[in-house]
Batch of 4 targets.
Target 1
Amino acid sequence: MKRIHYLLLVLAVVAAVSCRKHRRYFPALQPEPVRFVRFDSAFLAIRPDSAEQDIRLLYERFPSFMPVFVEDLLGMPSDDTAALVTAVQGFLGDTLYGFAETNKREQELFADLSDIERQTSLAFARIRYLYPDWETPELYLFVSGFQSAVYFTEDGLAIGADMYLGSDYPYYRQVVYQYQLQTMRKECIPVDVVSAWLFSHIPYTGVKNRLLDQMMYRGKVMYLLSCLFDKLPGYEVMGYTKEQWDWCVYHERAIWHRMMDKRDLFRTEQRVLSSYLNDGPFTSEISQESPGRVGTWIGWRIVESYMAHNDTVSLTSLMEQDDAQLILETSFYKP
C-alpha cells in the first residue's frame, strides 16, 4: 500500500510540474486553425481509364503543390504528360512493391485527421503567441512511395502519409532500418511537422561548432518542442521508445561522466558530432546498448536544468541565447 501511495505522489508531482511549465509560458489560447490539404486522396482517386484527364485536374486543383510533387518528388518533367500517366498508372496498380496495398492502407488509416489537426493547431497557436511574425505553414498530405516523410514546399510542409502507417507495417522492413520504425506512426506526425518547422525557423547561430554548441542548440529546440506538446511524454517528443528513454534516465550520470572524461564536449570532428547527434541504432561514442542521438537528449536535459534555475528567462530569450558555455555553467546540471 505504501508503494502505491508513493507512486501516486510521484505522478501528482510530475503532473504539477507539467502544469506549471504550461502556465509559465502560455496563457489559454484558441488553437491556430490547421487543416491538412488532402492531396493524397485526390491523387489516389485517379482512374486508370481517365488518368490523363484526372492528372490535368490535379494541376488545376493544386497549382502550387502538383508541380512540386511531379518534378521534385517523382523526379519527372511536368510537361511529359504521357510518361507521367504511365508512371502514375504503374504506381497505383503496383503489387510487386506493395504500393497498391499501402495506398489502400493509407486511405483507411487517415480517413480521420481530427486528432492530428487538433494537436498541430494548438502547437501552432503557441508558436504564433511566441513568434507573431511567423506564418503558419500550408500542410499537405501525400503518398510518397516510401520516399519522403516530411518535405518542405515553398509555402509549407508536405507529409508523406505512407511513411506513418505503424511501426509494425510489414513493408517497412524492406525499406528502412529497425531503429527508424519507432517514429513511423500516425501519432508522430504533429511532432514531426512542428519539429521541422522549428528547426527551419531557428537556425544554428553558434560561432563555434563544438559538440557542446550543437548539443545546446538541439537541446533548446527540444525543450521548446516539449513545451508546445506539454501533454506528451518526453519519449514521444524525442522519438524514443519508453525503454530507450528509461535507459538514458538510468544511465544519465554515467553518460555525462563519460562525455566529460573523454572531453567530447569540446570536440569538433564530424565523426564525433554525427555519433552523438544523428539518428542511428545507437550512439557509438557511448554504448551499443544506448539509443541514437544521446547528445541531443543530454542537451535537452541541460536546457531543462538551465530553465529551472533561471525562471525569468522566456522561451524566446532561451532560443536567442547562443552562448552554450553560459547555458551549461548556469544550468548547474549535475546528474
Note: The first strand starts at residue 36 and ends at 38.
Target 2
Amino acid sequence: MKTHPVDIGGVIVPNNVFCAPLAGYTDFAFRKLCYSYGAGLCFTEMVSAKGLRYKNEATRALLHRHPSEKQTAVQLFGSDPQIMRAACESEALHDFPIVDINMGCPVPKVYKNGEGSALLNHPSLAAQIIAACKESGKAVTVKFRIGVSEDKKIAASFAKMCEEAGADLITVHGRTREKYYAGEPDYGQIAAAKRAVKIPVIANGGIFSEADAQKMTEETGADGVMVARAALYDPHVFAEIAEQKIPRDIRRDAEEQIAEMLPFYGEKFTVVQMRKMVSFYIRGMRGCAEYRKRLFAADTLGELRALLDEIFCERG
C-alpha cells in the first residue's frame, strides 16, 4: 500500500497506517511496539470523559505514555459536550495533541449510556460534542461506524456532519453497530463517506494484511487504514503494510513489553497482561493450544519467562 504523511489539524504523523484503540490492549508498552514496526499513529485505550472529571485513578492510568511517544492520540468517549470539552482542556490531556472521539463502540454498557455508537442516532448532539472538543484547541478526529443497523446506513451524512462540526480527520469502521466485528466491511459506505468530505478519511475493518489494506484503499479511496485485531496477532503487520523491512523477533518483543510494564504496573498485572499478549502472538504456531493453557496457568514472571524460553527455543 502506498504510504504518506497525514496532516491532522496541523499535527503531521509520519504515515497513514494507524493502530486502532483497543480496550484492554493498547497501553503504552504495546503502542511502543507498534511504533517500532512502523505504525504512523497509535491511540490510547478508550478513556471516559466523566472518569477524568471525577479523577478516577483507573481512568488516568490509561493515559500513561512512554517518553518516546510524541503524537499518540487519546481516544475519549462521552455524551455531554461540556464534559468532553473539559476533558480535552484538562491537565491530564495536556500532552496529547490529538483527541479522537469514540462514536463507534458497540458494547451494550456504552451504547445504553448514549455514548459510543449510540451517537449515530443523534447527529446534532454528536456535532455539539465535536465542536466543543475543537474549542479546546486540540486536533480532533472522530471514529464512527456506518450506522446502527443494516437498514439505516448513514456514513456519508455522518461524515459530512463531522467535517462541518470541526473534525480534522475521520475514521470509518465499515460495519454497523449490530454487526460488531463480524462480516465483510461495507466498502461502498466508506467510499461514500470519503466522497462526502475534504478532510482525511481512514478506513477501518477487516484489515489483516498488506493485501487487505491495498484492497481497502483501492475500493474506497480512503487516505489510509486503521489496523485493529491484526495488530494483536502480529504487530509486525505495520511493517508489512507500510513495506518497511523490519525483522520480527517475538521473544524480544515480549521481553521488551515486560521490561516497560513492570515498573509501572508491578509483577501481578504485568504477568496477567502478558499472558494475554503472548497467547495472541503464538496464534497459529504448532502446539499453541497447549502453550496457551500453560500460559494462563503461569502466576509469576519467572514461570512466564521460563515458558517463553521453551516456546521460542523449540521454534529454533
Note: Residues 11 and 27 are 22 Å apart (CA to CA).
Target 3
Amino acid sequence: MRVILINGSPEQEGCTYTGLSIAAEALHAEGVETRMLQLGQQAMEGCRACHYCFKHDGCVIDDQVNEFVAMAKEADGFIFGSPVHYAAAGGTITSFMDRAFFSARGKPYRGKPAAAIVCCRRGGSSAALDQLHKYFSISQMPIVSSVYWNMIHGNTPEEVMRDEEGVQVMRVLGRNMAWLLKCIAAGREAGVDFPAQEKRVWTNFI
C-alpha cells in the first residue's frame, strides 16, 4: 500500500512538512509506504479552462500536476498539506488541486481515502481545511479524520513539535489512514468493490 503526501508549502522542510512527516511515520509503523511530492518551489499556474484535458490525457500545462496524476493512478491514498494564507489554503496548492482534480475528472481518486492537513501560526486553519476537503467530497473519496481537526500550529518546525495536541492529531491521522486502507483491501478480497458508477446528471441553473 502506498500513500502520496503532497507538501504544498514553499518551505521544503518547514511547518507543513513537519506535520506530514509525523503522519508518514505513523503510516510506516503500520506497514504503509509513502512518497512525498514537494510543491511550491516553482511557479504553479492555475486552470486556464481550456478543456484540453477533455480530449487528451492530462493538463495542457505539463508540470507537477501531470506528474502527480500519473502517480495517483497507482496510489492507494493521499494526504495533502498546506500552510494557511489569509485563512485559506496556499495559492500554490490551490492552483495545483484545481488542475489535478479537474483534468483527471476524479478517475484516479474514486474510492481512495484522502486527508488534508493545514499548518498555521495562529488562526484560519479550519477555513483552509474546509476548502481542501471540497476536492475529496466531490470526487467520491473517503475523508480520513483524527481526534481533532487535521491542523497543527507553529511558526517554525520546532514550534510545531511543541504543539503536543497537533502532533497527536497527525499521528492518529496516519494510523487511521492505514486502518482504512487495510479495511478497503480486506473488503476487496471478500468481493466488496467500489459501487458501479451511474451516468452523471448535469443540472444547470440559469
Note: The mean pLDDT is 95.
Target 4
Amino acid sequence: MLIRLKGKKNIYEEIVEDYTRYIRTGVLAEGEKLPSCRALASELGINPNTVERAYAELERQGLVRTIPKKGAFVALSGDGRAALREEAARQLRAWKTAGLQREELAALADKIYSEKTEESNDRTQ
C-alpha cells in the first residue's frame, strides 16, 4: 500500500485521505495493523508527530483504533460501516450527475456481486 504525498494539502491530511480511501474501499481490512508512526514517518521522510496526528484523526473518525504498545488497527465497524455507506452514497451521486442510469448501475452491481472474489477462488484451489 502506497501513501502518496502530493504537496497540495497538509501532510497529515494527505495521509488521512489516503488511509480513509484504503479503508473505505476495502484495501485495508478490519483488524489489519497500520505501520507504526516511526516506520511510516521514516518511509515518507517526515516527522513522526505528523503521522501521530493523522492516526489520531483517523481514530476520531472511527476508522482506526489505537491500542497502547500494540499499534493502530483498522476498525471498520459501527461508525466505519456508516462511513462506508456515506462514501458509496457520495459515489452514487457523482455517477448520477455524470449521467449513469439506475438500470446501468443495477446491472453493474449485479455483475460485481455475482463474481467470485479472489479470496473465495484461493480457498477452492
Note: Residues 62 and 79 are 6 Å apart (CA to CA).
